[in-house]
Amino acid sequence: MKFSIVNVFAAAALLVASSEIDAQVYVRKVVSCGGTGQAGYTVAIDGETKLAVTDSLFQAIREGYLFSERASEVVDFIRGRISSGSYDDIFKADDFAAALTRDLRAVSNDAGFNVSIEPLGAGTAAPSCAASCPSTPAPENEFEIRKAGRLTGDIGYLEISGFTDSADIPGIVEGAMRFLSGIEAIIFDLRSSKGGSPSMAGHLAGYVMNPGAELHRLDEGGKRGSTRVAAISPPAGMSRPEIPVYVLTGPGSEPAAESFAYDLKHLGRAVVVGERTRGGGRFSTAVNFGFPRFNMIFELTTSRPVHPVTGSSWLGVGVDPDVEVPACDALAEAHKLALLRLAGQAADPAGKSALEWTGMAIRSEHGKIELSPEQLDEYAGTYGPRKILKKENALVYVREGNPADFKLVPLDRDLFGLEGIDIMRLRFERDAGGTITGLTAIRDNGDRDSSRKER
Q1: How big, in percent rounded to 5, are the helix, strand and coil portions of the chain?
Q2: Domain at 183, CATH number
Q3: Which residue, among 9, 3, 331, 311, has the nearest Cα to 159 in the 3D structure?
Q4: Residue 396's domain spans which residues?
Q5: 3 state SS of 189
């Protein structure tokens, strides 16, 4: 599904009367699937109607296109295509719409242009849009908070399945944040967050930003200026502008989620963890022109977000993570980062040590870490008075003078615990080339003891 934020400019400015064919105009949001978003039927179109269609488009482009300095170039290009007879052999309205979409995008390099047709009455059956671009069924509670909870260390967690402008959203967000009251940090999981509206983003941001903080501006072109988009203040006493914030992203983070991640990242308010997003979406207006046998829906870019720090946005480029890890590992990584950050801020030495000890091994709480036979072989060896043995697809720790052997439990990359003992861990050291050169025994009181690997 294409993402479209409708920013309606005055419909009256787009009223058009072309030749002897009346084009009745109104503005609405249209979200189409794939291609030009054609309807399931097609109708014939003659030369006179083609001219009426293009005249309607030209007026809309002149009056509403964001990049007004390029409007004449776009219009002149299509006029040239008309004059050269490029559309003379097109006799179906949906084919004409597809050709116009292709040419408008080619001359402008702007995917926000889209022309589609809705026939009136009976027409010739054609493959449906849904059949040509099947989609995955929407998850339950789409456009809401799918999960809210507390992770080890009193870290708040919110999984956002999508963003919406529903009237229920302020209450939903407030309820989740009241549930998480007293947390020490928060993780927003946007890895599978669908499209939607920036309204919910403003409500979420309000709980971790100073009241009224600017997130970005919507540039609507020279004629219309810009609109300030700010964090929406939460109920009194619920704003937490001081707590650490982490945002998880990946290829499944769709435009409203990208906007939220980009805004908070570049305001210095959040650490983005995961994979780069796709940079999708467009900010467009859909204008409907009524003709005798069909309605034509014309979409064009009418605004764009501009960040107060970067002067740009995520559109077309995506959001780069501050900490790049596979999306599937992003939660574990953010959880670890949050715990270690809190440890760094802790004034109490005992509390600091406890947070560091927990953060070091938190990766294992988010799923069992499997090691291949080759990886097990890599760790096996003699390290001074210590030996790491490979037995039955596992690693075993042996220490000179100690009759007991301990199975090693993977906790993170190159970090292992001893099964049944939580007072010592082993971290394997590597050189610049990635070869294991030694190990360090780390105790919960902070003591460390290192041994070199024997060749």
Answers
A1: 30, 30, 40
A2: 3.90.226.10
A3: 331
A4: 368-452
A5: strand
Structural domain contains residue 253: yes
Looking at residue 122, its amino acid is: A
Task: Kindly state whether residues 39 and 83 are assigned to the same domain.
Answer: yes
- Name the residue among 30, 16, 18, 17 with its Cα closest to residue 282: 30
- Shared domain for 188 and 150, answered yes or no, is yes
Task: Please name the residue ranges forming H helices in 191-329.
Answer: 198-206, 255-266
Beta bridge partners of 157: 149, 187
Tell me 165's DSSP state: -
CB 97 within 8 A of CB 38: yes
- pLDDT at residue 315 in the model: 85
Question: Which tens digit of pLDDT belongs to each residue from 326-351?
Answer: 999 999 999 999 999 999 999 988 88
pLDDT for res 303: 85
Mean pLDDT of 83-111: 93
Out of 135-144, 215-224, 266-275, 326-335, pick the least confident: 135-144
Cβ(117)–Cβ(294) below 8 Å: yes
Is the pLDDT score of 13 beyond 60? no
pLDDT at 2 over 50: no
CATH number at 424 reads: 2.40.128
C-alpha span between 218 and 270 (Å, rounded)? 21
**Domain-terminating residue out of 298, 327, 348:** 298
pLDDT in tens, 406-424: 999 999 999 999 998 889 9
Give the residues across from 296 on adjacent strands: 117, 289
Which residues, listed in sequence order, are joined to residue 387 by a DSSP beta bridge? 382, 398
**Dist. CA 394–CA 277, nearest whole Å:** 37
Q: Are residues 118 and 175 in the same domain?
A: no
pLDDT band at 400 (very low <50, low <70, confident <90, very high): confident
- 8 A C-beta contact, residue 439 and residue 450: yes
Assigned domain for 356 exists: no
Alpha-carbon separation of residue 260 from 202, 204, 275 (angstroms): 8, 9, 15
Q: Are residues 98 and 169 in the same domain?
A: no
Measure the CA dihedral 377/365/191/250, to 10°.
Answer: -20
Across the chain, mean pLDDT equals 84
* Amino acid of residue 36: T
Cβ proximity of 415 and 427 under 8 Å:
yes
Q: Are residues 204 and 319 in the same domain?
A: yes
Residue 272 lies in a domain: yes
Contact 438, 426 (CB under 8 A): no
- Distance of alpha carbon 389 from alpha carbon 81, whole angstroms: 75
